[in-house]
Specification:
228 residues; Rossmann fold; 2 domains; 7 helices; globular
């Protein structure tokens, strides 16, 4: 949860026998907003929800009203991601290690192939594929919740086509989807570059959720691109 002045929810488990009387501390009138940044945040969110279900012995989807996906999910195919990811990784290597350009490029290509390509060749899903599938798993995320995708065509790490394609898949599976393309902000920097617009879009999406609580049914199921 990342709204300014919002309260943070911390889930803890101390072991031992689970006391069901202590499990539902949240009053029914309060709602949860989830906010994930980049593929790392997406994977951590999915792992957290899976752990929550295991620790609480509750297999129902996590109770939330709005999921904000900032600069995620990215693509999972080596054929489309090799050039993009290796370029970003090479730039990171050259900025932190005294490596010649050709060596940084070679290491970045090898790293991307190992992380993205080899798992697929061995018959496993890579992390990006697991994340994309996990986000659209109704056993983890309730389809009654709204979803806001925040991204940018200037993002060198996460391709905007991959984000919009995942949004379409989510819409087809029943989620109520909002999209916001910030056009010129770098990866995970939309909040910093466009702070007023960013929180305005978040507020607009949250108000849509609130209206549904008040009985205004969501009739239009087409994907909405925020104009703010």
């Amino acid at each position: 949860m990342c709204l300014p002045a919002a309260r943070l929810l911390l889930l803890q488990h101390s072991g031992g026998q689970h006391d069901k009387s202590q499990s539902a501390r949240q009053p029914p009138e309060e709602k949860i907003l989830l906010h994930a940044f980049s593929n790392g945040g997406m994977l951590n969110l999915i792992a957290t929800i899976e752990a929550y279900q295991t620790l609480t012995a509750n297999k129902a989807p996590f109770p939330h009203s709005l999921l904000i996906l900032d600069s995620t999910p990215g693509g999972h195919l080596l054929s489309t991601e090799l050039h993009r990811l290796s370029r970003v990784v090479a730039a990171g290597l050259k900025s932190t290690l005294p490596l010649p350009g050709f060596l940084a490029s070679a290491l970045s290509l090898l790293l991307v192939v190992c992380v993205v390509g080899i798992p697929t060749l061995l018959g496993f899903e890579n992390s990006a594929s697991l994340g994309r599938r996990g986000l659209n798993n109704p056993e983890l995320f309730a389809t009654s919740s709204d979803r806001l995708y925040i991204y940018s065509k200037a993002d060198e790490l996460i391709g905007w086509v991959n984000v919009e394609r995942h949004a379409v898949e989510a819409e087809d599976r029943g989620w109520y989807v909002h999209l916001k393309d910030f056009q010129d902000s770098p990866h995970s920097q939309h909040m910093r570059v466009h702070p007023e617009q960013y929180w305005s879009v978040v507020e607009k999406s949250w108000k849509t959720v609130v209206l549904s609580w008040l009985g205004n049914n969501k009739v239009d199921r087409t994907i909405r691109k925020c104009s703010l």
